[in-house]
Amino acid sequence: MDAIQAQLSSSLAQLKAKLDESPALQKLEEKTHVPKEYIFIGGAFVLTLAFLSGVGTGTLCSVIGFIFPAIKSFAAMESHASNEVTQWLVYWVVYSFFSVIEIFAETLLYWIPFYYRFKLGFLIWAMLPQTRGAKYLYDNFLKDLLKKSESKIDAALKDAKSTAGKGDNGNKKDE
């Protein structure tokens, strides 16, 4: 029993040392008078329960799929690191393509159990610099598809632009 307590205390001390680097958790600890390691563990527990039960997984996918990549994209643009900017541009192309497919397949996706859990795993795989999943998908599938379809996409955009400029569903009004 003492060995378990010692291990737990050691693990909490390591977690606390890591969390000391977070000013937001420091402020939260000061306001709530709850140690930041307990706040972190409680938050992780609540998120895990929500994730396992399926509550809010769609929202979680949106937050993780947008917020983290947006922050990293901004940081990459500000640092002028071209390889990082390229990584995030590729991520946004893959994410956009995935989102368009998702719109058309929404009815079918409703019937896939644990869809949002799979989507979350996919998004994490696609965005992490360690896996470079978006780059893999872009290089092996999307690049050739987009290059072949570039003239059709440009024509569709030009048509949409001219239709949008006419107003009233594309019909010019008699004046």
UniProtKB/TrEMBL annotation:
Q: What is its main location?
A: membrane
Pfam families the record matches: TB2_DP1_HVA22 (PF03134)
- Where does it live in the cell? Membrane
The answer, when asked if Membrane is one of the entry's keywords, is yes
Residues passing through the membrane, by range? 38-68, 88-112
Q: Which InterPro entries match?
A: TB2_DP1_HVA22
Q: Does the keyword Transmembrane helix apply?
A: yes
Q: Which UniProt keywords apply?
A: Membrane, Transmembrane, Transmembrane helix
Q: Which GO terms describe its cellular component?
A: membrane
Topology versus the membrane = Multi-pass membrane protein
Q: What family is this protein classified in?
A: Belongs to the DP1 family.
Q: Per its record, how is this protein called by name? A: Receptor expression-enhancing protein
Species assigned in the record:
Cyclotella cryptica
